[in-house]
């Protein structure tokens, strides 16, 4: 999702919080899966029970199909409402088979009536019988002509649009389309037996010890010639990359959304982007693995194949994290058709609009903090049940180890309709309920979930970097912005040595103030949303309006803090090495983006969300420079893994904790002296050194020293003490003179430099890494 910047939003949030403007907590949510919603076989497979929530529906019927398209339903049943607003019915499988000819996988959807469209016996599919209004004063938008996907369906048959059926108005309400029966077109849920595939043994590694790799499951292998053609771009293909990622030093793969999204039509125009969405941040259903990403697209195939992929990663010691989108849905916001405002209905909105969505105060429209459709009503206990139940399904049945929540501050909203108010502490928010019901992994490792939030959204009060609740790690946008500015915007975006040091040392100002730890800071330079690492250092501005396959894409931030380094390719590669080194040497949890290890570029497109194209898929034929950068990345990742001093459990101290004469963390000017306040606070100082006392961490190096020269010219550094009786040895210098496959020395092959007082000339925009022994 687009990333906004801290402006008045942060101040507003502080003011609201200070004056206690938070709503009373709603009733505590039920435990996981307490209401057993969805479609489920009984233990013997002889009955199916359908259960669906709606607070205001007056009638719900389930329609059962032998095939998802091309034929009318075989039979329908009216459900019975219970006191908790669950509509349910249990049907006999033998009757379905023998009387109604439902012999294979059963596909289903719901039709719902309510106060704005009561049921009448004269209603038939495609009629207006009973119609009162598209929406009533309470915000209900029932329309029995729209077949609705069960929010608890385990798999979907297809996307709302598919090749040969690309008219999205069939789902619309409003005067022109409210009587169009969407049944022949709509996605259907599959009634499936409980998935029992093995997902292996979950790693228990502390999150601070992870190296995250954000990647699109399709893009990972779609263009990989080493993967069998039928598996390319699928869960099965991704599973074959576990060994590669392990060798790169990746310990957690974080997939862009794999929950069902509209992508069946991406190839209708094979050389254009009209209507396409590649990233998939428009979720159709929170339980269903996207069918298009499966090599086995038969009913149950995506679920089984996803489980098998998880097992392959677990077998390689790699966690599987999912990017999930609970701030809005793919059902979309208001749109204009023929001059009239219309809303599409194919799931939540047609079942219970005011429960599942945040609405404007008059309940007549969507309330939108996301820029891509109405907010999901995350403060409502029933809407929260769906969040929690689906996350638990991915965690427990599909084996997922952690989740990154898109635009997560929408999940900290304490207001259901007509406003947005973030609270870190309100126990009734979705953020707090999630970690209460599915506790975060302990900081030192063990069983638990790695919870990551993108701590911003769009609009006032949503920028909350450093302010998610306990239990949550965060994409540290301040880390990204500070390092980018320092490397790319000298003279334009002032960065003091003090600001840089705070970010490199784990951002104690953001996560230490509320009891969290360095590992809660997910440090990153780039993500899917924005430039690739290569383009960050090779592009002065976005260039999104390119011809296929590099565009055209709309949108994209204009605040990229990027720079082409004057156009010299060698300087661009050096900047990438220095940035990658800063990332892998910082306290916190580093995240890189898939393909960055080979300097993947998309020619300055910074919003390629719609490019399901060869330009956006990873490439697997690196040239010599790309191979060298991959070696650089993997060896530095291995260095990080080998040195616990780089992965502190708590924030570094300047004190000498073991009396060996070295502070746990000490900062230095190039002269080898401690920076004074004047040095720390002057953005005209562009060089900084730091030393970590390895003996306080059980580190194989008695000390680690890093010198960073952000200045354009060479800087002479005077090395500090390596400790009594020790010498400094060079692991790497990111400067161009050292470029090549051996730029990071193997352990034991580091060049000896000398002891305290040794001079070292560090080239402009370079970084030096030393170990003492
Ligand atoms: Ca799909
Ligand atoms: Ca296309
Ligand atoms: Ca904080
Ligand atoms: Ca010490």
From TrEMBL:
Keyword presence, Signal: yes
GO biological process: carbohydrate metabolic process
Pfam entry (one): Isoamylase_C
Gene3D superfamilies recorded: Glycosidases, Golgi alpha-mannosidase II, Immunoglobulins
Superkingdom, taxonomy of origin: Bacteria
Leader peptide range in chain numbering: 1-30
Protein name: Glycogen operon protein
Source organism: Micromonospora humi
């Amino acid at each position: 999702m687009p990333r906004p910047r801290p402006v008045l939003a942060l101040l507003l949030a502080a003011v609201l919080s200070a004056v206690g403007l938070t709503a009373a907590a709603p009733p505590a949510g039920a435990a996981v899966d307490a209401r057993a919603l969805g479609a489920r076989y009984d233990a013997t497979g002889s009955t199916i029970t359908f259960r669906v929530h709606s607070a205001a529906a007056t009638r719900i019927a389930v329609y059962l199909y032998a095939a998802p398209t091309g034929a009318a339903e075989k039979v329908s049943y009216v459900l019975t409402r219970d006191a908790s607003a669950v509509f349910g019915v249990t049907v006999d499988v033998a009757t379905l088979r023998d009387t109604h000819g439902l012999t294979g996988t059963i596909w289903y959807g719901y039709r719902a009536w309510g106060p704005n469209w009561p049921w009448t016996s004269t209603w038939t599919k495609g009629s207006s019988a009973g119609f009162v209004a598209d929406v009533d004063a309470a915000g209900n938008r029932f329309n029995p002509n729209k077949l609705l996907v069960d929010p608890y369906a385990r798999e979907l048959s297809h996307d709302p649009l598919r090749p040969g059926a690309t008219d999205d108005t069939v789902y619309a309400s409003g005067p022109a389309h409210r009587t169009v029966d969407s049944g022949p077109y709509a996605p259907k849920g599959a009634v499936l037996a409980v998935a029992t595939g093995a997902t292996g043994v979950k790693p228990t590694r502390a999150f601070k010890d992870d190296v995250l790799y954000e990647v699109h499951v399709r893009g990972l292998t779609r263009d990989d010639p080493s993967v069998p053609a039928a598996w390319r771009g699928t869960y099965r293909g991704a599973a074959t990359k576990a060994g590669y990622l392990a060798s790169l030093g990746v310990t957690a793969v974080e997939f862009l959304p794999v929950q069902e999204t509209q992508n069946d039509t991406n190839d209708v125009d094979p050389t254009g982007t009209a209507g396409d969405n590649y990233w998939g941040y428009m979720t159709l259903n929170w339980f269903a693995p996207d069918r298009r990403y499966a090599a086995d697209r038969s009913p149950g195939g995506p679920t089984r194949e996803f489980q098998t992929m998880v097992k392959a990663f677990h077998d390689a010691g790699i966690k599987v994290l999912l990017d999930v989108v609970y701030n809005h849905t793919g059902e979309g916001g208001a749109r204009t058709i023929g001059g009239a405002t219309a809303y599409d209905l194919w799931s939540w909105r047609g079942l219970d609009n005011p429960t599942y969505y945040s609405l404007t105060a008059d309940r007549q429209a969507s309330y939108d903090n996301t820029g891509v459709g109405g907010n999901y009503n995350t403060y409502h206990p029933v809407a929260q049940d769906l969040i929690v139940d689906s996350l638990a399904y991915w965690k427990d049945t599909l084996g997922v180890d952690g989740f990154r929540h898109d635009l997560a501050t929408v999940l900290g909203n304490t207001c259901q309709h007509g406003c947005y108010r973030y609270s870190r502490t309100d126990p009734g928010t979705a953020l707090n309920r999630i970690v209460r019901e599915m506790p975060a992994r302990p900081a030192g490792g063990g069983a638990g979930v790695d919870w990551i939030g993108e701590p911003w959204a769009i609009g006032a009060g949503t920028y909350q970097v450093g302010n998610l609740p306990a239990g949550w790690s965060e994409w540290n946008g301040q880390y990204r912005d500070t390092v980018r500015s320092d490397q790319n915007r000298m003279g334009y975006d002032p960065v003091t040595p003090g600001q840089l040091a705070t970010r490199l040392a784990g951002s104690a100002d953001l996560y230490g103030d509320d009891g969290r730890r360095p590992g809660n800071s997910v440090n990153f330079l780039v993500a899917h949303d924005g430039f690739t690492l290569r383009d960050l250092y090779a592009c002065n501005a976005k260039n999104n309006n390119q011809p296929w396959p590099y565009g055209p894409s709309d949108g994209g931030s204009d605040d990229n803090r990027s720079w082409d380094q004057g156009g010299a390719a060698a300087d661009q590669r050096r900047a990438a090495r220095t940035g990658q080194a800063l990332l892998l040497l910082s306290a916190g949890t580093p995240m890189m983006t898939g393909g960055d290890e080979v300097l993947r570029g998309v020619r300055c497109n910074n919003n390629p969300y719609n490019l399901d194209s060869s330009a956006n898929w990873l490439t697997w034929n690196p040239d010599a420079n790309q191979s060298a950068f991959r070696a650089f990345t993997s060896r530095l990742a291995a260095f990080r893994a080998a040195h616990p001093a780089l992965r502190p459990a708590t924030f570094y101290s300047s004190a000498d904790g073991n009396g060996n004469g070295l502070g746990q963390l000490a900062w230095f000017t190039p002269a080898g002296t401690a920076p004074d306040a004047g040095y720390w606070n002057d953005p005209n100082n562009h060089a900084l050194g730091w030393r970590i006392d390895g003996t306080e961490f059980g580190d194989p190096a008695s000390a680690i020293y890093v010198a960073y020269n952000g200045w354009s010219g060479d800087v002479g550094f005077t090395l500090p003490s390596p400790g009594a009786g020790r010498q400094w040895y060079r692991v790497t210098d990111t400067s161009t003179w050292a470029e090549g496959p051996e730029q990071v020395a193997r352990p034991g092959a580091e060049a000896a430099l000398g002891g305290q007082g040794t001079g070292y000339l560090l080239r402009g925009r370079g970084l030096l890494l030393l170990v003492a022994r």
